[in-house]
Amino acid sequence: MKIFISLIFSLCFFLNSCAQQKYEKPPGFGKGKIYKIQKGIPYKKEFNYLNVNQLDKLSNGLFCWKSDNDCQILDGKTKLFNYYQTSGDDNPTLVPYTYAEGEFLKGKYQGIWKYFDKKSRLIKKEKWANGQLIYRKEYNFNTCDNWEQYKFSNINSSEYNSIEQFKKDFSIKSGNLVCENGIVKSMQLIFEDETTIQFISINNGLTKGHEIQIKGDPVPSGKSYFYDKKGNVKRISEVENELLEGNGHYIDYYYPENKKNSGVVTIPIKKAEGEVRNNLKFGEWKYYNKEGKMDSIKTYALKDSIDVRFPYCIFNKNEPCY
């Protein structure tokens, strides 16, 4: 027990990264040949692969590989692994993942050390010279610059953020999707409503692609919206006329619920159509009901600023698209 407590203290102090949970090592995993050598004498090894629980520190400040009553000084390239516990099932299991990788030079940290989370994302990077820390850089995955996906919805779903939360986390600035940390560099937005799941690719604050999947339909279904390099609407799938830099004829659709789930693709119903200029509604627009019959006509000026692009249309002061 004293050895285990010493290990955890040493890891937290010298690696500055200590897990909150305690994970037990599965029997038989990571065991290799035990080298019986005198304590404190370096053992040269081209590559070390060991559990973080096998890492210890001698009284002279050198890190070593703990085995039985011996602790072999580490020398050479090293990879440390740890475990995380699965959740959400009746039989949680321990899954190994790479915790850190770098090099020891006769028991001292040397060169670049990298640390990872259980999703294999780089969370910290350090540079050492003969046991002396030169610099440390930590990566914050609570910023939008590092999010891989952002799920949100206009229906109550525990797996998705609300529309209200999305509007708190993001905004539109100079035509770009931004968050507190600046322009969204690269992210996939996933939006769910009653009948669809929509996938929106964002690159440098601009939409690069927008695909709609109707629930219960085989893939693909729904419409796809294509964008040019400047983030302007270029084309809508199955619509003959292309748009030029966000100018042209635009069509929006209803997506009926697939109740039968029979493998037949659901046909979208025209919801609205009209002219867009710079991706904004302009002139006369026709609106249809869910039976496909024209319901109303409305005329727009550019000052109305009704953006048709998703997710930018969420931030429209008038006619937000959700």
TrEMBL record:
Keyword annotations from UniProtKB, A to Z: Signal
UniProt entry tagged with the keyword Signal: yes
Signal peptide: 1-19
Annotated protein name in UniProt: MORN repeat variant
Species of provenance: Chryseobacterium luteum
Native organism taxonomy: Bacteria, Pseudomonadati, Bacteroidota, Flavobacteriia, Flavobacteriales
